[in-house]
Design a protein that fits this description.
The complex is a heterodimer of chains A (404) and B (331). In chain A, 46% of the residues lie in helices and 12% in strands. Chain A is an alpha/beta fold and 404 residues long. Chain B folds into 2 domains: 3-52, no CATH class; 84-327, MetI-like fold. Chain B has 13 helices and 2 strands; from the N terminus they run H-H-H-H-H-H-H-H-H-H-H-E-E-H-H. In chain B, helix 6 packs parallel to helix 11 and helix 12 packs antiparallel against helix 13 (299-327). Chain B is flat. The chains are: A alpha/beta (404), B mainly alpha (331). Chain A binds chain B through residues 53, 56-57, 60-61, 63-64, 81-87, 169-171, 228-229, 231-235, 238, 365-367, 370-372, 374-376, 378-379, 382, 384-385, 393, and chain B through 67-72, 74, 92, 152, 155-157, 160, 175-176, 178, 180-182, 266-273, 278-280, 291, 293-299.
């Protein structure tokens, strides 16, 4: 890191990109080196963090030091606001017309979608078949409840430890207070519908009391049938590992686990089923661009930075890098390649069918998600508070948040 | 005299007596002042650059709305004591203060007791005592982040599987008994890891102190019929008082500033309730400051907390050194 910073001094002939997906660091560096050679520029890639906000401290340090990267990643509205003053308007870029998930604010495009990602309940199709459960029926609270009960009674026969691999420790707050939390905000609503999100941001919880109640049932169900060790203390590896080794039927994660499952030699058939956070049928999974590249307005290499992003979309090398090398689902039309991971394919199928719900969790601040909501989920998972208290604390949290 | 000693001696004597002087133009006094500052300059430069300036800047930012980001409304404004008031109103910050005191006291006791006992063992008539000394010291060479992950694995996987292997220990396999799943036992886990990491280092200081105790005192006591316990109480411990001043200071400051093991072992979890609000249960002060800065995006408020942190730690350590110094014996 120190070495990178030292060589990344401002000046023509150097383009710096800071991004938040360490898992594609090697592939991006290889692509950037080849691209740089062709364009007569050294591209410096800095990859930091795994969860949202992991990159924040370095970005702030670089900004304070006057060493801001030319291109940097951000994950949504809250982090956009953090850097609003220096993010370049990209509305006129040629790639804008080829995507529907670019980051827009006040009618202008500010973010280049890095990829498309999605999560639902990842299921082990082989185990479900053994238990005689059709994954297509899993799309409401009642369907899940029945399925979980059945699977739980067949633990020995299926050779599983628990039904769900779910993580709710503080370290894994991004699973509960970011991803799972989004079910409350967008499940069952048209794509891009912010009605519930805006009401909750304004502290109007009463308007959605029923929704919150049903959501609490869903969280309780997930926690009840989760592997307790993983739920309370497990990290990412433990959570994904349990699913990869067939010790659980479901995994509460997104398609980014594909490379992990591959390296764990998980060969069973799998796919995504919707979340059952409501009584009514919600037939879709949560799909969006997980992060966006922004161009630093104050960069000395604006033309090169724009070309770098554009070439990802318009050149075959860019396509190969995004899809084949990095294994991502491209956010742009006109790319014929397909990712190989089973869960990534499942996300593509759901998207192609138009059965998708948005990601609205990033409309809430990192402070609210990580410091307010995460401990509430953790208390509920540990059985220290009841479902009624969970609802009460969530309600209070929204109201307090609206006061700030 | 070795090279280092010579340099110090030269500095004390002034350069001329060491043959470094080129002529008689300078008086002895200005020469020695000059040499004094030349020798001091490198460390002074580093100290000013990485300690004094950041400290002053940070203290200044604590009274502003500084964010180090490019928000739409980001011009720097003075906000007076607002950051301090907000901090003291935050239950999580108050809790962190409390839990840091508890952790520091328990950790100081655990480390020093273990270190002192180990030091007594490896200065006794033990075979392979040098091997033990190295063995106890080695954990100190592992970085705190890695150590935290290793011990996370031990607490979450190794200990429960021990429970499944040995029937009489099967309570260990119960998820409800996982050390990291409750905030009280998670704090104990942090103390275990802290002791494991640091006791070997402190042991070395005690070893040096114990080996410096004049043998004739011990022999005289033996001849007078003092039991090992009396010898420990009346000779070894009082004569180690100088070492205690150092070790107490080191363990106090290090425990109070604990960060890396905290992050990697517990991330501040699991949660607990305070004043009707769920908060992180093992979030020590340093981690609370970090999270305030980078998760909550309140850099100036974090600066205010760091300022309070510095004041409290400075006062406590001055008191500690003062108290310990009074117990020291001049031979």
């Amino acid at each position: 890191m120190v070495l990178l910073t030292a060589t990344a001094a401002f000046g023509a002939g150097k383009l710096t990109l800071m991004q938040n997906k360490p898992e594609i660091d090697a592939q991006l560096k290889a692509y950037a080196a080849a691209w740089g050679q062709k364009n007569g520029v050294t591209v410096v890639i800095k990859s930091i963090g795994g969860t949202s906000g992991g990159m924040g401290p370095q970005l702030k340090a670089d900004y304070a030091a006057g060493d801001m990267p030319d291109i940097f990643a951000f994950d949504g509205l809250e982090s956009f606001k953090e850097w609003e003053g220096i993010i370049l308007d990209l509305s006129k870029e040629p790639w804008v017309s080829k995507t529907s998930v670019a980051f827009k604010y006040n009618g202008k495009v500010y973010g280049f979608p890095v990829a498309v990602e999605g999560w639902g309940m990842a299921y082990n199709a082989d185990l479900l078949a053994k238990a005689g459960i059709d994954p297509k029926t899993l799309n409401s609270y009642d369907a899940y409840k029945k399925a979980f009960e059945k699977l739980d009674s067949m633990k020995d026969k299926l050779g599983i430890n628990a039904v769900v691999s779910m993580a709710a420790s503080i370290e894994m707050g991004w699973v509960t207070a970011h991803h799972n939390f989004n079910s409350l905000l967008s499940n069952g609503l048209p794509y891009g519908d912010l009605s519930v999100t805006n009401d909750l941001l304004a502290g109007k919880v009463e308007a959605h009391a029923q929704r919150l109640q049903e959501y609490a049932d869903w969280v309780e169900l997930l926690f009840k049938y989760a592997d307790k060790t993983i739920l309370l203390t497990g990290n990412y590896d433990a959570q994904v590992g349990a699913f990869a080794t067939g010790k659980t039927v479901f995994l509460h994660q997104g398609n980014w686990v594909d490379p992990n499952l591959k390296s764990a030699n998980a060969t069973f058939k799998m796919g995504f089923a919707p979340h059952g956070s409501m009584k009514k049928v919600t037939d879709g999974i949560f799909v969006s661009a997980p992060s966006y590249y922004a161009i630093n307005k104050e960069s000395r290499n604006l033309t090169l930075a724009k070309k770098f992003l554009n070439d990802l979309v318009t050149t075959p090398e860019g396509h190969t890098y995004m899809v084949k090398e990095a294994g991502m689902i491209p956010a742009f039309s006109g790319i014929t390649l397909n990712p190989e991971g089973q869960l990534s394919k499942s996300v593509q199928e759901w998207s192609a069918a138009g059965k998708v719900y948005s990601w609205n969790q990033y409309y809430f601040s990192g402070d609210f998600r990580d410091k307010v909501l995460t401990p509430i989920y953790n208390q509920f998972a540990a059985g220290k508070i009841s479902k009624a208290q969970f609802v009460e604390l969530m309600t209070k949290a929204f109201k307090d948040n609206a006061q700030k | 005299m070795n090279a280092g000693g010579l340099i110090v001696w030269c500095a004390r004597q002034g350069a001329s007596t060491c043959g470094l002087s080129k002529g008689g133009s300078m008086t002895k006094k200005t020469e020695s002042t000059l040499v004094f500052w030349i020798f001091l300059a490198p460390v002074l430069f580093a100290f000013i650059m990485v300690m004094v300036i950041p400290f002053l800047l940070g203290s200044y930012y604590a009274f502003t709305n500084w964010t180090s980001s490019a928000r739409a409304d980001n011009e720097l404004r003075f906000v007076g004591l607002q950051n301090f008031i907000n901090s003291l109103r935050d239950p999580a910050f108050l809790y962190s203060f409390g839990i840091t005191f508890v952790y520091t006291i328990l950790n100081m006791i655990a480390i020093n007791v273990v270190a002192f006992v180990l030091a007594l063992l490896v200065t006794g008539n033990l075979r392979f005592k040098n091997v033990y000394r190295v063995g106890f010291f080695v954990p100190n060479l592992i970085g705190g982040i890695i150590l935290g992950y290793i011990w996370q694995f031990i607490f979450n996987n190794a200990i429960p599987s021990l429970g499944t292997l040995i029937p009489s220990l099967n309570f260990l396999a119960d998820p409800n008994n996982l050390m990291l799943s409750k905030n009280t036992t998670a704090l104990a886990a942090m103390i275990i890891v802290g002791t494991w990491q640091y006791a070997g280092y402190i042991m070395m200081i005690y070893v040096a102190a114990i080996e410096n105790i004049p043998q004739e005192l011990i022999e005289a006591a033996k001849i007078d019929g003092a039991t090992p316990w009396i010898r420990l109480k009346a000779i070894t411990i009082p004569l180690c008082a100088q070492a205690f001043t150092v070790t107490m200071f080191l363990t106090l400051v290090n425990s109070f500033k604990q960060f890396d093991v905290n992050v990697s072992l517990t991330s501040g979890g699991p949660s607990t309730m305070l004043m009707g609000q769920p908060i992180l249960g093992t979030e020590l002060l340093a981690l609370n400051i970090y999270n305030t800065a980078f998760i909550s995006n309140k850099l100036s408020e974090a600066q205010a907390r760091a300022f309070v942190f510095f004041l409290v730690l400075a006062i406590i350590s001055i008191i500690q050194v003062y108290v310990n110094k009074r117990r020291e014996i001049e031979l």
